[in-house]
Amino acid sequence: MAPAYAHAAAAAGYPLGFIFVILARSELFTENTLEPIISLLHRRDARTLGLVLRLWGLLLLGNLLGAAVVAWVLGRTRAIPASLAPHLARIAERATAGTFGEVFYQAIFAGWLIALLAWLLASTRSTGAQLALIWLTTAPIAAFEFRHSIVGSVEAFYRVATGASLLGEMVMGFILPAVLGNAVGGVFLVALLNYGQVAAERPRR
Known about the structure:
The protein is mainly α.
């Protein structure tokens, strides 16, 4: 398959993981940059801030542990044919490439799209509409090579599992800037804008 068609096919299939996670009512760290932040902006107290940070910490830890397990299975067991290993290595290297600043910048847009998805999903209970919204907001992440901290961490941990990179290199060079960028994209480009639309309607004390 020509590279252009391969990239398009990968982008079209990229939303499948999000479909499984979201329809199964699992939780992604990047989904929780919308509603918790709106609650924090509404209450503006230390208790709510502590709850948001606790939620983020638990979700991020759980998501990264799950990503590490998947990466270890792919890289250190016979779950996939050995003939696919070179292809996975190239995909993982490309998906985690970039400087700290580049990864952070690309992750902002992925965080924006996922938080936007959480916002849009609240508008419908139709499974068909939810599938369409998931596809429309997550396929561009792969198409434009934005960086998603949780999906990308599978590829980062895969490089560690196969000995292609060191853990510290992947954590500091990819996972950390991707997490920060996703949080910025979700919080500032969606939660704050969403809150700004209704802030004027808050009753004054």
